[in-house]
Structure formats: structure tokens, C-alpha cells
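Lecture 7, part B: from sequences to assemblies.

Below are the input chains for today's worked example.
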Amino acid sequence: MAEKKVTAPLPGIVKKVLVNAGQKVGAKDAVAVIEAMKMENKIPAKSAGTIKEVFISEGQNVKAGDKLFTIDAD
Amino acid sequence: MTSDAVMTIFQGILSGFTGLTWQYALMICIGILLLWLGVKHEFEPLLLVPIGFGCILANLPLAGMMEPHGLLRQFYNAGIINEVFPCLIFLGIGAMTDFTPLLANPRVFLLGGAGQFGIFLTLLLALALGFDRLEAVCVGVIGACDGPTSIYVTTQFAPQLLGPISVAAYSYMSLVPLIQPPLMRLCTTKKERSMLMSYTEQKPISQTVRIIFPVAVTIITVLIAPMGAPLMGTLMLGNFLRECGVVDRLNKAAQNEICNIVTLLLGLSVGATMNGEIFLTTKTLLIFILGAVAISGDTIAGVYLAKLMNLFCKEKINPLIGSAGISAFPMAARVSHKVGQEENEDNYLIMHAMGVNTGGQIGSVLAASIMLAILAAMGYI
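Predicted structure of the full complex, as C-alpha cells:
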């Protein structure tokens, strides 16, 4: 099992965290919503697997490239 | 009571109806259409609702709302004729605008300039169609895609066209999400649209830079184009209130109370200028057609300038952000982002497009000011 990182593709505010540690996700599932300039962006998991760690909480500011989650890929 | 007296009473009660000419009736229908677009479809409701209601009020016969002592005429005199309302709106826009994306990537300011191409294209077309010089300038300014700037310029030089021009400007701003995407797709290849733009190499912008920026822009642009001082001055004052960090109350007042009150009064007054005799002419129709040309020209010029920049720059930009150079804010930036995501879901153009969009805002004021400066130099105004 390889560990994959999900990073923020753009700077903004974490509007919603949609998954918890231990949860199974598909590659296309949205794991978080980041709001930039009043636009909500769904962030896809990119790889199917189990969420290992969550590094963000709602309302937090993130920079582009910040680590959001790690996933144990299937 | 004699039958004559009864007739007189009836005539008194019904005089509103008998005074309702077809022009008034049609304008009332247009007012209702604007209300419907605003309420039902949420096209720029903050603007279309007051404009639509103002239009209805001004076209009810004998109500006299736009007569010398009428209520709407008072609003019009208080803020439109002396250009106070558009400037106060700019104060609010300045306070709401975050110029950080532009400062992080200053070269996109060029795209904000290209977004003004439609102004000059439309100016030439309007002249060719027989508008007189000053009217043509005002029609061209629709290409700035910027309501307050259009109102400001039109009030000064062709007040008789204020109704059609401002309604055209605001309608097209609300139609940006419909007008732009097909043109953007037409002018780009699939490969260009899917081009990723990253944020990671951007440096953070310090508060010092953000504070100096509005002051520097004011001084430089007003030295270049002094006639734009009221618009640029208020826009940048608003932004200074936002960034300086010590006048939060003024910042909030500019963004909320001042901007909201003025939007209402400005919209009502603009609606009230939609007088049937002036509005229902072929000129209005031409203005609407030219407005569409202006915005299409802006969009295409922006996309192509972005492609041109890519020929010379090492760090490539996605041409889709070029279309955000029109100052319709923030709709144009959102359109760039959405069209980019349709092509490639890993593509998050929003902040880059915002940089172009805010650049377009400065660009539209600057373009209008430069045009005024040229007219003044040529002795037309």
C-alpha cells in the first residue's frame, strides 16, 4: 500500500472537510471544499484508498501546495 | 349632480389610463422584464431590481416622478448629474477588491489592458454608424464593461443617452457568463484550455506592498490621465481603506452601507432615465448591438494577447485567463475558471484570473481617462 498526499491546488479557505481518518474514498470523490474568491472548489481524492491522516479543519487558511490529507492507496 | 360633473370626476380618476401612451406601456413592460430577470434569474439583482422599478415609476403617466420636482429627479440631480454616485460606488469596489493576485503576477496587468480593446473598436464602429463624436465615446465605454465608468462618462458628454448606455452596460455585465465561453472556446485549442497554472512559485505579498500600491497607482495614473482622477481616486482610496488596516470602520462602511445605499439610488435614477421617447429609438437598438460587439472584442483581444505573451515568455499562461481582462468583476474571472475546469478538472485558474480581472478594473478606468484626455487635447470637450 502506497501513501499518497492530497495537497491544496490553490490558496483559499477550507470551507468543508468531507472525510474523516479511516474512511474509504474513490479517486473521484471530493475530500474537501476550498473557497477562493467566493468560489467553492471541490478537491478530489485523486487516488482510491483509505484516508490516513487529516491535516486541515474547517475555516482554516491554506496556501497552494499545503498538505491536506494522506491516503493509503489501494 | 349633473351628468357633466360625473363625467369630469370620471375623467379625473381615469386620466392616468388615458395618458398611457404605447411608449409608456412598452417601457413599463421593459421595467417588468428587468425585474423578472433580476428576481427570477438572479441576473445582477442588486442592479436590475432598482433599475426595473425606477423604469416603471418614471413611465407612469402624470405621476411626474422625473419632473423638475419629482422624487426620482431629486435622486438624479443629487448623484448622477454631478457624478457623485458612480464615484461612491467605486469607493466601495476599491474596498472590496483584493489586488494580491495582480501583485503576485504583475505581468497579467497587460491582459487587463487588452480587455479594453472593445472600447476603441466600438468607438470606431459607432462613428461609422453616424453617432456624433461624444456620443460615440460614450457608446464605446460600454466596452469597459464597467457600469460606474459608463455612467460617469455618459453623464458628462451625452446625458441624453444615459438610459440606453447604462442599461446596455449593466445588461451585458450580467450576460458575461453567457457571452464569453463560446468565444473563448472558439479562440483556443483544447490543449491551450487544459494548460495548468500553478500557485506554488508565487511569492507572498507583504502588507507594505499592498499599502503602497493604491497610493502609487493613484499618483501615476492621475498624472497620465488627470480627467480620470475622480474614478481612479475613489477606487484607490477605497482600496487604501481596506489595506491600511487602521480604519476598519471606514473600510466596512465603504463596502457595505455606502455602497448599498448608493447602488439603490443609482439604480433607481438610471431606471428613471429610461424615458420612452428617448429609449424607444433605433439608436438604443444600435447601442445594444454595439455593446455586444464591444464585449466580444474585449474577450477575443484578451485571449489572443495571452497567446502572444506565451510566444515570448518562458512561464506560460493559460489563454483562458485573458478573457478576464474586461472589468466585469468577479464574473469574468469565474468564467475563466469554469471554462478551464470543464477541460481539465485539475485546473484552478480562479486566482490567476482574478489578477487579470482586477487589472481590467484599473485598465477600464485608465482607458476611459485616456480617451477623455485625448478628446480634451483635440478640443472636443
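Note for the exam: The two ends of chain A are 6 Å apart (CA to CA). Keep this in mind when comparing with the next example.
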